[in-house]
Amino acid sequence: MLGNPHPLRQQGWGGCQFNDLPSQKFEVTPETITGAIINRVNVTSALWQQPGFLCDVIVLTGGGAKGKYYEDLPVDYVREKMMLSGNDYFLITLEYGQKKAVDPFNVQRIERTNKEQAEFSNFLHPIVRQYREGELVSTHHIIEDLAAEWLEEEHIQPLLEYCQMQINNPVVPLAMV
Length: 177
Hints:
single chain, alpha+beta, six-stranded antiparallel β-sheet, disordered C terminus, 5 helices
């Protein structure tokens, strides 16, 4: 085995505090969050191989001025353990769309420049969900890409606009709207 095992594998969910997990600290701006998300979704193998089960998490602390980026965590662990702290979280997953094709060789795809329809993507694509105090407050889908490379303007610009809106504006949990 190469390197040290992940703390979750060593200690299990019950024994591992999320503050003990490896993370990268950064100053929070819409640009740094957008860059971190785009960089990760284009290089991760874990989120690709475990779509919707594993996630990356950005935790905003210090009133939203500082952030920590955690990689390759089980979604259930994040919801059960991390979201109890009352911080804002961005949960990043790769997931397939909800619509199942009758004929897998004749699937209608969303036009790659139709970023307003990204939530209807059928194929594997990044989804960013923001939680505040454990409640879902917003969701952003990055439009699917046939080559699974989210490096184009139609992937980056809508994510940057989403991050600007979510970081610079207080939001109300969706359940309260």
